[in-house]
Amino acid sequence: MASIEGVVDIQEEQIDEVTILRIKGRLDAVSSPGAEKKVFEYINDGQHNILLDFEKVDYLSSAGMRMLLSTTKKLKTLSGKLIICSVNINVMDVLKMSGFDHVLELAQNEEDGLRKFHLSLN
Q: Which domains are delineated in the chain?
């Protein structure tokens, strides 16, 4: 588990060709640059199918949303995909108010997210 500036923890698990990154903490102006750097390290290592588990993300700021957008764009250029799962109601409200629920691919839970990857990979 990598601790990013003591604010966000990212735990990684590999299932088939999907990298699951379980994020814990707040994605705000302080933590988002470090979280983005960590996610981009996975992408640069050749992991282009990323499922972000947001179950333990309790706050998302505009900086966090920018990180999600830049990650989505980067993966699209690499024919990869970003899916975000297990988003709590407060974070989902932020995504809906900003219209990001139409820009990002969301899944109810990890199982649903993995199913979406497998449908697009087959």
A: 13-81+96-102 (3.30.750.24)
> For 66-107, what is each residue's pLDDT tens digit?
999 999 999 999 999 999 999 999 999 999 999 999 999 999
Read off the pTM. Answer: 0.91
Tell me the DSSP string of 48-116.
Answer: -EEEEEEEEEEEE-HHHHHHHHHHHHHHHHTT-EEEEE---HHHHHHHHHHTHHHHSEEESSHHHHHHH
Cα–Cα dist 23/9, whole Å? 6
Q: 120 CB contacts (<8 Å, ≥6 apart)?
A: 81
